[in-house]
Amino acid sequence: MTQRPHTPIGVLTRGTTGHNRLRRSDRWLVHSPRVRTALLSAADPLVVDLGYGALPVTTLELAARLRSVRPDVRVVGLEIHPERVAAARAAAPAEVEFALGGFELAGLRPVLVRAFNVLRQYPVDAVPGAWDVMRSRVAPGGLVVDGTCDELGRRCAWVLLDSAGPVSLTLACDPFAIDRPSDLAERLPKVLIHHNVPGQPIHRLLTAADRAWASAAGHGVFGPRIRWRAMLDLLAEEDFPVEPPRRRMRDGVLTVPWATVAPP
After folding, report:
1. CATH number at residue 31
2. What pLDDT does 3 receive?
3. Are strands 46-50 and 74-79 parallel, antiparallel or unpaired?
4. What residues make up the domain containing 250?
5. CA proximity to 233, closest of 258, 215, 259, 207
6. pLDDT value at residue 94
7. Is 5 contained in some domain?
């Protein structure tokens, strides 16, 4: 029996992209214990890059960086626009695949899905359904990353999800490119951006981060990366469950459990 093709679930998005735009999320994925465990323990290390845009550059970069964790990783870029898929297939090396697909993941069962700057372009009430579809399609133990960043990738935010739901929120930036942590509010994932108002958990976190950033101003003489680390220490002292940073920290990264920022 001939298998019927999968109908992509989703709508066409703008497709803007650029070289190294997603480098901060890539670096986080490579070093995240949760992601590394999922990749290293998978019988089939399949990764889907959903909605890579008009050019496949970020998919190719993702594949190259994940191979430092697992050399046999398989990366498939999915787009719902046939012309984008055809262009990617013509330009990309054979070791990275491209296919037509949306939130249904083209029938694949990946261990990791990255969907960056996709749901940002959807109405907020579409987010839970899209999350549910993607989570239902990943392999056992699989993970989904729903993220957003600016055009140059200097300000980013993403949610990590597993089969049970959201796990954590990460804010990441070039510390040289911000005046205060709350500058990242404009790049919050769709599920949170409308909740950045007084009384909401995400607003409480960003306000506390700005306060700690100001208190750590003296560390600025050693550079904004050292100041960012001091800010994280101050947040931890205020009992925010901040994930400890890596020893060598190129990016400003703030990761907290989802429960810390979940809308009521």
Report:
1. 3.40.50
2. 39
3. parallel
4. 23-189+244-258
5. 215
6. 78
7. no
